[in-house]
Amino acid sequence: MRFFTFLCAALPLVAAAPSSNSNQDNFGSYFYKGHDLSSLKTLEDTGSIFKDTARNNKTRPAEDILGDGGMNTVRLRIWVNPESGTNGLQYNLELAKRFQKKGYKLYLDFHFSDSWADPQKQPLPAGWPTTLKPLASTVRGYVKDTLVAFKKAGIKLDLVSLGNEIRHGMLWPLGYVDIDIQPDSALASNFSGLATLYKAARAGVDDAYRAGFSKTQVMIHVDNGWNVTLQQRWYGALVANGVPTSAWDVIGVSFYPFYGTSATFDNLKNSLNTLARQYRKPLQVVETDYPAICNGQWNPIPESSEPSIPYSVDGQLIWVKKVIDIVKAVPYGLGRGVHYWEPAWLNNTSLGSDCNDAILFQPDYSGWPVTVGYSRKSVNMFKEGR
Ligand SMILES: *[C@@H]1O[C@H](CO)[C@@H](O)[C@H](O)[C@H]1NC(C)=O
Ligand SMILES: *[C@@H]1O[C@H](CO)[C@@H](O)[C@H](O)[C@H]1NC(C)=O
Ligand SMILES: *[C@@H]1O[C@H](CO)[C@@H](O)[C@H](O)[C@H]1NC(C)=O
Ligand SMILES: *[C@@H]1O[C@H](CO)[C@@H](O)[C@H](O)[C@H]1NC(C)=O
Ligand SMILES: *[C@@H]1O[C@H](CO)[C@@H](O)[C@H](O)[C@H]1NC(C)=O
């Protein structure tokens, strides 16, 4: 009887161990310090330039300035068939080649959409099938073809995220999920469509491996990284619907200060540490930012989830330092990266917030649409020892 009780208690751990272990230490302890530079080419194509205020306002590529500030990785979003080509395959190959040549690691963020995909919208690419089986086969082929195109272009991808902020699933409506539909049971909300589509996307990565694409780290990215309830129930439901934990390598989360006061450092710490103990997989904060300017000019000023940190350039530095510290302190050394979202987007400075400006360059619009971005000292957020 005692033995039986012991066995039952130990079972979940025993069952979880093999797949967790198979992933655990394959990726070393490299710490990714990334900037998402997806819009950079669009800006440059219309003449925008960047000036390095630490070098007498010398004009330099944005990535050189950010690289001096400690960036070692560039994150890029990829859309399936975007209207103007922006964020499409060719657009990405061009940027990726350029950044790789300069020694940066690359992280490709699949949106599985022709435009923005986030928790509020995950629109199906135009012309993709609207029934599950054909859609799964299309997404599989798309992932494979995309990764093989990177391989053929001589580009290595360190990280690949299958979907962007997929709290509510991806490829709507078939891949839609809502963990809150029946709050008492993680299994109640229907993850079966998403599970099918995720497994298909993951199979596309394996197909690419067979075609010579070299080993990458496959990530799942869910927003609200501070919400441990969401994260645990979400991954629980995915696994309960037949996605083995071996089907992803890295847990990625977003963490923003201005979408709700629960996004505290304590909540982030608790959430990441809990996930690390449960899944024993590398974790990264893959999107964050902090306003340099928030003066209520266009919208009511949203309260920061860490109100002691001012909305200012210094505040940007304090926020990111703290996020890095929290990630680096995740148990078992599983905290592996922090990425700042679109620090150079000179003509979209609010970055989806109600604040004026969360980027790392002071824009000068006097020559619009050609804009000049003067580096703020927050470009150094990833510098060691600051
Ligand atoms: C750089 O440009 C900014 C903005 O025009 C200006 O305030 C600053 O004085 C310039 N710095 C140098 C060293 O020229
Ligand atoms: C869950 O979704 C799948 C695929 O979309 C569907 O076939 C199935 O009937 C749904 N199950 C429930 C219980 O709603
Ligand atoms: C955290 O996530 C759960 C599950 O989605 C949700 O029910 C809850 O409201 C969230 N917490 C907050 C403070 O938003
Ligand atoms: C920024 O400029 C580019 C190029 O002119 C344009 O395509 C894009 O829509 C602009 N973004 C905003 C937010 O104005
Ligand atoms: C500016 O960024 C937000 C996301 O933060 C996006 O929703 C919006 O479409 C962008 N604007 C343009 C013109 O790209």
From TrEMBL:
Catalytic activity: The enzyme specifically hydrolyzes (1->4)-beta-D-galactosidic linkages in type I arabinogalactans
Class in the EC hierarchy, top level: hydrolase
EC number: 3.2.1.89
Entry keyword annotation includes Signal: yes
Listed GO biological process terms: pectin catabolic process
Top-rank lineage group of the source organism: Eukaryota
Pfam families listed in its UniProt record: Glyco_hydro_53
One GO MF term: arabinogalactan endo-1,4-beta-galactosidase activity
Annotated Gene3D superfamilies: Glycosidases
Keyword terms, alphabetized: Glycosidase, Hydrolase, Signal
Hydrolase found in the keyword field: yes
Signal peptide location: 1-16
PANTHER family linked: ARABINOGALACTAN ENDO-BETA-1,4-GALACTANASE A
Family in the record: Belongs to the glycosyl hydrolase 53 family.
Record-given protein name: Arabinogalactan endo-beta-1,4-galactanase
Organism: Glarea lozoyensis (strain ATCC 20868 / MF5171)
